[in-house]
Design brief:
heterotrimer, B: 479 residues, alpha/beta, Fumarate Reductase Iron-sulfur Protein, Chain B, domain 2, Rossmann fold, 3 domains, six-stranded parallel sheet, four-stranded mixed sheet, 10 strands, C: 260 residues, 2 domains, four-stranded parallel sheet, 14 helices, 8 strands
């Protein structure tokens, strides 16, 4: 991308001023005392030892659940893929105005057989990923025409919900990390409801670990080589700009639901 | 009216405004309680501050290297990086981008740097409708006001004020004052503007050198929408926002959230690596990063003051400052109010703002609150030293200090001057206390002056420890 | 320049009380000399041998705070000459102590010899309560003062010298004294030197908040280790109907000794 503005001079002006300032300051006897003492390892791992971090495994799951409860993320623990589909139907019934259809899905609903038909909602935007195709396959018939796959279109205004996977989850803060490869940028922020389908094994104990995994072990394993943006999402959208009172759903989702697969 | 005088008037008016005092007190008490809890989540808050300070010190000391690294890496992913020596250059760069794309409608998320360069005014003058989408910023934009606080732009308003404003501008019911309904109304209104926008503008909280990323911290989601829906995005930010490593965010995200609002981490922390990639369904086709100097390199050149560039704009020093709590944010008439603004503005914008470094009791509550350990109150002293050394202070003050220094240069002179002053003050009739005739009026207008004592300490000491001598000084009698 | 807590620097020393050079700030000398006299009373009661170097005038803080570093530097030189040979220098003001210990090194930094002299004197200067508690290791004076007393933490005491508990330790051992912790004890009183006259309207509002807290706590006295804070608080209290009085810590202890 080239700019018509002759900007190279601006670049040299700013960088030159910065370099000159650094030289000038370095030669200045008024240099302040040695910087605050912090060991090299502290600078290498800036957050290490500063937060209580759960051990990997069960404790991590427990902490993730606690933090989510505190930040108003709704977590539903799931044992199997069929159960996930069933839970998803329940959710969609309420937000998309779907109606039960006794003919379709086994294992769902009180009667053991619940299915859905579309009725007057504005569609479910879904990241096009094999796991989500499997999750939705029992519902495809009933939702036909109402699922918008990210491979086909961008997420637009008035979608009832966005359904995506996550890059990682963070126990320390109860966060979900979504990249733009999770159905794009808008899928997780534009609809009133964001549903995340994730596995408990994706839970990183802390931000340090999660950020390291985004960055990748080497330069070309970075998330940012396949996604242009990522967001660490900690609860539904909120504001406290009016009298410091918490209101959810300021600009983004009012609800954030994580379907957490425990045994995958 | 010059800035110093204007400040004095505005400060006086605000200091006497009981309503605003109550609003600020309530807001800050709520904030204080949340921050106390938030700090408790750190195992060692002081160590966190020390590390943050060390990291920012490193970032600033090698700023040229980190800027170039950031630039190289983000350009490699298709972003364009622009450098702006000053506000005019930054405005021109952004206007040029907007003109090239025939932009008519702009959505903005919160950016203090955009306030600094008066970007919205420039865009609107060029015929582009520009919407502030952070709820607090939206409210102050509707009121035609600058933000009151760098984190809480509408801190000075109660819900009734906002309800009245929305009734008038958005047609909400006059009696609708529930925050949920007001937020809902604003969301509905702004959502249409998001969908129709041709250009999204955001700020940046951090620029990450080692991965070439822009980090944006928010709670509402409007910055994410600005980065998702419009076909072109501009990130406007200052050159001092660099952090060396992606790993640093594991400290700086919780630190910024805790100091800013008391949250463990804010709701959305986004990382931008570039414009939309092939295969992605949305996101801007072009991402432009504008890096603004605008006086920052001048601050950088002063080794004693460059720590002011460590600021992460959390607003903690504003909330902690008893002067800010008394006069509020608008009285400063600067982009950055409160202690950090008082220390930084004279350096960034020049001598017209010298007075701000003097409008403080130097109590240091700001430095105590600062999550990156900037000794803001000592920086205010250094601002004062610059102003005085450059002879920018009133002649009367210079004369007073000179007189004090002259008198104190010799103990006898000091004693004689003190005795004379005390005698004169004892002649001051009680009737003129606090009036315009009172030579002590700057003090007595607001509080009572002490009675001048008949005898100084040193005279008492001499009298007590030695027999009266012929020297009249030694025998200063109690009068 | 950060001043680490004096706790590690000066463990309570055993043995005979040292000779003490009195550092009487210029406005204590001229405006509130009774604080100096009360300081003498307390230190002599503890067996200190006192000296008042007569060449002292002003430490230079007013000039320094207003930005006039050249003028302040000249006064610093005088101070360092005057007190250069003293083993222990005691000052009834946290603010002036902080000037010498905290700000002299910065003021002297362009001249290594001067900076070394500043550091040397800085290590020997003590704020009054710090001297008693940290250097002498004394908290029990045998004083009595049967009143409700609140402490105002002066900003320099608190944030430059890191002295918060020292005055309270002394007060807790005063018989009959009820130590009351007020809201906003650490909030600035609004004095701030020239700020109090240049921006009187802000300064007064700050002091009013302090006065509100004191009156709400229904204390008889507010004490502090800074005469300038007390001047400000007393000045505002005097124009209010309340009955809270101000008293420097040295004065409170001196009265307490007299009535014990």
């Amino acid at each position: 991308m080239t700019s018509p503005i002759p900007e190279s001079r601006n670049r040299e002006a700013v960088l030159g001023a910065v370099r000159q300032a650094l030289r000038h300051a370095a030669s200045n006897p008024a240099e302040r005392d040695a910087p605050a003492q912090a060991s090299r390892s502290a600078l290498e791992f800036p957050a290490r030892g500063l937060f209580s971090i759960p051990a990997p495994g069960e404790a991590g799951v427990q902490r993730f659940l606690e933090e989510c409860a505190a930040n108003r993320t709704e977590v539903i623990q799931i044992g199997s893929e069929e159960q996930a589909s069933a839970v998803l139907i329940k959710i969609l019934e309420s937000v998309m105005g779907l109606e039960p259809n006794p003919a379709a899905i086994p294992g769902a609903g009180p009667a053991g057989n619940t299915a859905v038909v579309a009725a007057g909602s504005e569609g479910l935007y879904v990241q096009d990923a094999p796991a989500l195709r499997r999750l939705l396959s029992p519902l495809l018939e009933n939702l036909s025409g109402r699922i918008l796959w990210s491979s086909a279109t961008a997420c637009e205004e008035n979608r009832a919900a966005g359904l995506t996977l996550a890059e990682a989850l963070v126990a320390q803060t109860g966060s979900v990390i979504v990249g733009s490869d999770c159905g794009g940028r808008a899928a997780s922020v534009l609809p009133e409801l964001h549903i995340v389908y994730a596995r408990a094994s994706q839970i990183a104990p802390d931000l340090e670990t999660a950020l390291a995994s985004l960055g990748g072990a080497s330069a070309n394993e970075s998330l940012f080589d396949r996604a242009s943006m990522a967001s660490v999402v900690t609860g539904p959208s909120r504001t406290a700009d009016i009298e410091k009172l918490l209101v959810l759903g300021a600009h983004g989702p009012r609800r954030l639901i994580v379907l957490l697969c425990m045994n995958a | 009216m010059n800035a110093a005088r204007q400040f004095r008037h505005a400060a006086r008016a605000a200091a006497q405004d009981a309503e605003i005092a109550g609003i600020l007190r309530f807001n800050i008490a709520t904030y204080d309680a949340a921050v106390a809890l938030g700090r408790g989540r750190f195992l060692d808050w002081r160590e966190a501050r020390r590390r943050a300070e060390a990291i920012k010190r490193d970032a600033i000391a090698q700023l040229d290297r980190y800027l170039e690294e950031f630039e190289r890496r983000i350009i490699a992913r298709g972003a364009a990086v622009h450098w702006a020596p000053d506000a005019a250059a930054a405005r021109e760069i952004i206007l040029e981008i907007a003109r090239r794309h025939n932009v008519r409608r702009v959505v903005k998320s919160k950016s203090m740097v955009s306030e600094e360069i008066h970007l919205r005014e420039a865009l609107e003058q060029a015929g582009m409708a520009t919407l502030e989408t952070d709820l607090g910023e939206y409210i102050v934009q509707l009121r035609n006001e600058p933000p009151y606080h760098i984190v809480t732009p509408a801190m000075h308003l109660r819900r009734e004020h906002i309800a009245g404003l929305f009734h008038q501008k958005l047609g909400t019911p006059a009696d609708e004052t529930s925050p949920e309904a007001l937020v809902r109304a604003a969301r509905r209104e702004m959502r249409q503007r998001f969908v129709a926008a041709d250009l999204g503008i955001t700020g940046a909280n951090f620029l990450i050198a080692d991965h070439g990323l822009v980090a944006i911290t928010e709670n509402e989601g409007n910055a994410r929408l600005c980065a998702s829906l419009p076909p072109v995005q501009v990130v406007l930010t200052g050159i001092e926002k660099l952090l060396p490593r992606l790993a640093d965010l594991a400290l700086f995200w919780p630190l910024l959230a805790t100091a800013g609002t008391g949250q463990p981490i804010t709701c959305y922390n986004s990382l931008l690596g570039g414009p939309r990639r092939g295969g992605e369904p949305d996101g801007p086709r072009e991402l432009h990063i504008v890096l603004l100097d605008n006086g920052r390199s001048r601050v950088l050149a002063d080794a004693a003051q460059r720590e002011l560039l460590h600021c992460i704009r959390c607003g903690a020093c504003l909330n902690a400052c008893p002067v800010f709590q008394t006069i509020g944010g608008h009285a400063y008439a600067t982009t950055y109010p409160g202690p950090i603004g008082a220390a930084l503005t004279p350096l960034l914008r020049g001598p017209a703002y010298d007075h701000l470094a003097y409008a403080t009791s130097l109590c240091g509550a700001c430095a105590e609150a600062c999550p990156v350990g900037i000794e803001i109150h000592h920086q205010l002293l250094r601002d004062r030293a610059q102003a005085a050394a450059a002879r920018r202070r009133p002649w009367s003050e210079r004369l007073e200090i000179r007189a004090l220094a002259w008198a104190a240069a010799k103990p006898r002179r000091f004693e004689r001057a003190g005795r004379l002053a005390r005698r004169l003050l004892r002649l001051r009739p009680q009737a003129i206390d606090g009036t315009r005739l009172d030579p002590l009026r700057p003090w007595t207008r607001y509080r009572q002056a002490p009675e001048p004592p008949p005898q100084s300490f040193r005279a008492w000491w001499r009298q007590r420890n030695s027999p009266p001598a012929p020297n009249s000084m030694a025998a200063e009698p109690p009068s | 320049m950060s001043l680490e807590s004096s706790q590690e620097r000066w463990p309570a020393a055993a043995g005979a009380p040292p000779e003490v050079a009195l550092f009487i700030p210029c406005f204590v000398d001229q405006v509130t000399p009774e604080i100096g006299r009360d300081l003498v009373t307390v230190l002599e009661r503890l067996g200190c041998r006192l000296r008042f170097p007569p060449d002292q005038t002003c430490c230079g803080q007013p000039a320094f705070n207003a930005g006039y570093r050249q003028e302040a530097r000249a006064l610093m030189r005088r101070f360092l000459d005057t007190f250069g040979n003293s083993e222990a220098i005691v000052c009834p003001s946290g603010s002036c102590t902080a000037m010498v210990r905290g700000f002299y090194p910065e003021l002297a930094q362009s001249d290594p010899a001067l900076a070394a002299a500043a550091r040397r004197v800085g290590e020997r200067v003590y704020e009054f309560s710090e001297f008693l508690v940290r250097r002498l290791g004394i908290t029990e004076l045998g004083a009595a003062f049967p009143h409700r007393v609140a402490v105002h933490d002066g900003c320099h005491m608190l944030r430059e010298l890191h002295l918060k508990d020292e005055p309270r330790q002394l007060l807790r051992r005063v018989r009959g004294l009820e130590l009351v912790e007020i809201d906003d004890a650490e909030r600035c009183c609004g004095f701030g030197g020239s700020f109090s006259v240049n921006y009187g309207m802000i300064s007064e509002a700050m002091a009013a908040r302090k006065a509100d807290a004191l009156e709400a706590a229904e204390v008889d006295y507010v004490t502090a280790c800074d005469p300038s804070c007390l001047l400000q608080i007393a000045g505002v209290l005097a124009r209010r109907p309340g009955r809270v009085r101000t008293l420097h810590l040295a004065s409170l202890l001196a009265r307490g000794l007299a009535s014990a």
